[in-house]
Specification:
Blueprint lengths: L4 E4 L14 E14 L8 E18 L5 H7 L3 E6 L12 E6 L12 E2 H26 E2 L5 E3 L14 H14 L3 E3 L3
Parallel strand pairs: 1-5, 2-7, 6-8, 8-9
Antiparallel strand pairs: 1-3, 2-3, 4-5
Helix pairs in contact: 2-3
Length: 188
């Protein structure tokens, strides 16, 4: 492999954002995925933080034409960090980066609700790449499920949302129920 690569652990796991680019599943040691509230908006982002002993499953994807500015614009709230993922059956790209929310954007006091429209896109990616076991690992390895979830499927707020088939919505809903996540509607 040559070029530049990103390690995705949220919406960047969804293959529809990587059409025609080299990509494959991988694991990254030393990083913990979490819901991170910021000063930038009322709902949390998925982010990562360094954490000894943690292992993160995600996607290594090529950055088209080494064009970091376009991806950096999409991920404007994040800083890029060097990453050394392990990819079973693949060589690990030497220049792989991971995005983490910039510390000066952290807002540890606020507890905005997770957007279901965003979560659906993330889970759809994990299901397509890693199957139902990958979806379970995503829910189990993510911290911050102690906040509410805004059910915005009827009027999605997340700009990259595409409605999931009923069976995939049910899969998301079962995991949320298992974790005891409180649902609110956009009208609450």
């Amino acid at each position: 492999m040559s070029g530049k690569y990103v390690f995705g652990y949220g919406s960047l796991v969804n293959p529809r954002f990587h059409t025609g680019r080299a990509m494959h599943g991988a694991r990254l040691s030393g990083w913990q995925r979490e819901w991170r509230q910021t000063s930038l908006r009322e709902v949390p982002f998925l982010s990562v933080r360094r954490a000894e002993g943690a292992v993160l499953t995600g996607m290594i994807a090529e950055v088209p034409h080494d064009h970091w500015p376009g991806l950096d614009e999409r991920e404007y709230a994040y800083d890029r960090h060097p990453a050394k993922p392990e990819a079973a059956g693949h060589s690990t790209p030497p220049d792989t980066q991971i995005y983490a929310v910039k510390p000066h954007h952290h807002d540890d006091e606020a507890k905005g609700p997770i957007l279901l429209s965003y979560l659906d896109v993330v889970v759809q990616g994990y299901l397509r790449v890693f199957g139902q076991q990958g979806v379970s690992e995503f829910f189990d390895s993510t911290e911050g499920w102690d906040r509410a979830l805004r059910d915005d499927r009827a009027a999605p707020i997340y700009s990259r949302y595409e409605a999931l088939p009923a069976r995939e919505q049910d899969l998301v809903d079962r995991h949320l129920a298992r974790l005891g996540v409180t649902r609110i509607t956009a009208l609450d």
